[in-house]
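Incident log, support desk, overnight shift.

02:14 A customer reports that sequence design results differ from what the structure should imply. Their input is reproduced verbatim below. On-call engineer (initials T.W.) acknowledged and began investigating.
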């Protein structure tokens, strides 16, 4: 089944398609289960539409799970339960009554936004950006704001402002970042889906760490969230969701897709394709580094599974020049510099460690120390899209690790460490995801493997600009061939 959003809207609403997915694609364990935590978003929406479950019941059950599980994972920065209960009564739309959270980098009218920082106490945005309007317009009911590192700048969610967010698979380990709170809430069954965003891996990294599905869509695929890339010409960030199933990810991506944007239209993908793909796999990162042995082995095992499914699989080297990781780090540092200098202009105060974390201040100083390299870094980053376009003439999909190691222990990437240590550790850990923020191409993390100490290891599949449908069809196929639905973290439901 392949239905475009425009066709669905023309036929009444996208809700009809979601109902079909809910009845046709439900897993047997979901149909038989009375445990609402085990239901994905499509199934939850379907039960609410059919009257089997009310929106108020779905929201109340999620609130109960939140109160029980969040003290263990610390994934919420602000709770809006009273508001959620009121909204559940009148919820409408294809996902009416499905409980969720909004990442604390984006405004929700009437709700505070802290940006994972101590620098903006009491801030409340006056209006929602189009992306949040679209997401909430699906009928989902937000229970509050999920945690994020300061300004979303890190690959772990351990902000000083709200404390360390912990992985439901093992609370001594990181959830990843920057959508770490969203990932933990979904992995633990508190909610089936949660809003997330990705400017350098911030959907895919937490999905890998927490055993979720995480899709970064193409640049321009969804409504602009805010002018967050004002420091340079490359728009890095897109928005999406943390989910536990491919069909939830596919449904959200289709529902939020802007179709008239020059990209190939994104249909609602509901299953695998018969098309066999040319898959190039690599374990070599942007900085020329390899992952730890068990991540390398996991990637090669997934490559072998793809080959067993009939795809053409070949180990490749991407056409990436050395030093790209350093260019991206400088561009990333420019965002910290922009946030800090904005605060200085608004408050007329000098930057300090009471407002900002050491890592944010370190990135700001790093940018200022290397400003003479900035234009050259941007120019080099802008050449990458063309090189990858040429590469994709021979390969449909790239398979790689998401990160270079399983989820690290809490504190290993802590922004309170000295800046050079933190930057070096982050650079080594995040070797793969940023490439597709630079090119704007779609990329998805799938929870296909587990580490020796029972922590999730994601595999990343990436394609050329506008090819989300191909990735989602492959994801459905791998979800059947290497199923993860039966795996649950110790903290679940």
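02:41 Re-run completed on a clean worker. Output:
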């Amino acid at each position: 089944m392949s239905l475009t959003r425009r066709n669905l809207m023309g036929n009444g609403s996208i809700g009809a398609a979601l109902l079909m997915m809910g009845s046709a694609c439900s897993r047997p364990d979901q149909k038989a289960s009375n445990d609402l935590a085990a239901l994905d978003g499509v199934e939850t929406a379907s039960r609410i539409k059919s009257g089997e479950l009310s929106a108020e019941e779905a929201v109340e059950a999620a609130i109960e799970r939140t109160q029980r599980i969040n003290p263990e994972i610390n994934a919420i920065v602000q709770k809006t339960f009273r508001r959620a209960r009121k909204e559940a009564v009148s919820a409408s739309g294809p996902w009416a009554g499905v409980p969720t959270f909004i990442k604390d980098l984006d405004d929700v009218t009437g709700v505070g936004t802290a940006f994972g920082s101590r620098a903006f106490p009491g801030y409340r945005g006056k209006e929602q950006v189009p992306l949040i309007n679209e997401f909430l317009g699906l009928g989902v009911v937000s229970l509050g704001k999920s945690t994020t590192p300061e300004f979303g700048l890190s690959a772990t969610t351990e902000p000083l402002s709200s404390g360390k967010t912990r992985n439901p698979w093992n609370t001594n380990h990181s959830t990843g970042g920057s959508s770490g709170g969203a990932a933990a809430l979904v992995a633990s069954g508190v909610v089936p889906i949660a809003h997330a965003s990705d400017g350098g891996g911030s959907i895919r990294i937490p999905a890998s760490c927490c055993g979720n599905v995480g899709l970064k869509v193409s640049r321009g695929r969804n409504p602009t969230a805010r002018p967050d890339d004002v420091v340079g010409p490359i728009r890095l960030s897109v928005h999406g969701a943390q989910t536990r199933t491919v069909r939830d990810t596919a449904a959200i991506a289709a529902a939020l897709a802007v179709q008239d944007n020059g990209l190939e239209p994104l249909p609602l993908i509901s299953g695998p394709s018969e098309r066999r793909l040319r898959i190039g796999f690599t374990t070599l990162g942007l900085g020329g580094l390899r992952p730890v042995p068990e991540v390398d082995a996991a990637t090669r095992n997934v490559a072998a599974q793809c080959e067993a499914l009939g795809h053409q699989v070949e180990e490749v080297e991407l056409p990436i020049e050395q030093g790209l990781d350093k260019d991206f780090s400088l561009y990333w540092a420019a965002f910290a510099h922009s946030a800090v200098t904005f605060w200085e202009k608004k408050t007329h105060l000098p930057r300090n460690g009471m407002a900002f974390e050491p890592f944010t201040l370190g990135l700001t100083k790093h940018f200022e120390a290397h400003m003479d390299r900035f234009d050259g870094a941007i120019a080099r980053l802008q050449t990458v899209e063309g090189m990858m376009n040429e590469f994709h003439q021979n390969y449909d999909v790239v398979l790689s690790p998401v990160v270079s190691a399983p989820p690290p222990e809490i504190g290993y990437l802590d922004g309170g460490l000295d800046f050079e240590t933190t930057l070096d550790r982050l650079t080594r850990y995040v070797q793969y995801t940023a490439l597709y923020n630079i090119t704007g191409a779609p990329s998805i993390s799938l929870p296909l493997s587990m580490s020796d100490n029972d922590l999730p290891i994601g595999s990343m599949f990436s394609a050329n600009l506008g090819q989300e449908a191909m990735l989602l069809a492959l994801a459905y196929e791998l979800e059947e061939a290497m199923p993860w639905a039966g795996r649950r973290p110790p903290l679940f439901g």
